[in-house]
Amino acid sequence: MDFRTPIKIEQAPFRIEPGQRILCVGSCFASNIGKRFEDALFPTTVNPYGVMYNPASILHTVERLTPHIPPLERPAEVAILTLGTNHVYVLKETGEIVDNCQKRPAALFEERELSVETCADHLEKAVALLWQRNPQTNIILTVSPIRYQKYGFHGSQLSKATLLLAVDRLLTSHASLRGNEGALAYFPAYEIMNDELRDYRFYAPDMLHPSEQAVDYIWQQFADTFFSAAAKQYLCEWEPIRQALAHHPFDEQSAAYQAFRSQTLQRLDDFKKKYRLKNGKSV
Questions:
Q1: Which one of 80, 141, 188, 202 is at 20 to 30 Å from 135 when CA atoms are compared?
Q2: Rounded to two decimals, what is the model's pTM?
């Protein structure tokens, strides 16, 4: 008897290879996934201008990032855009959507909800900018499973539904982009959390955020969906080295630990040479 409803994830139109350059922009769930890439020594940029929760702010990050990449710095090969909410805050004085209220008085701002059409339009522009920078960039869209209690749980669900509809609209309009050009894909993090991991034991103590165990599980599903055979082998080789480096001995001065440490550093050096890593990042 199966007590879960496993999510069937569609075959990805591309694969992530070892050492590819990753860009993660969006809600704090994007930060969680970005940290997994960083821990695995992928060259990763995570929310360079802070956590962004809505499609407009995600677009703002892409707009700010794209023109200011130094000419010698290579653009991202994989971009992960994680949507959290369709709620935005508008500065009354200018009518502009702000990404951060910067602790200014709440009276200066008006809260609004973006429509499905507006969310899709912001995402369309963000994707176009990423492809303008690098037509081969593969882009993954996902909706954060984190619930927003401040809207009320019904309001939170309406917000997520708006984002899901916007993503679906974008995927439909770009369904033909395959082959040598960058592809667009959706990863069902929201669905995994709400259907496959619906038990509260998979939530953090605030009962809103996924627990570390849940994020690890979603990361594993992500890797199974998008990682190539070579990338999966890369992770298999890296994980025991990572665990060895994180080991805290009872006696750091013991001969046994010193030998263990020396052996681990040699394994790390061999790993970096094999995958052409420099300072823990691929070159």
A1: 188
A2: 0.90
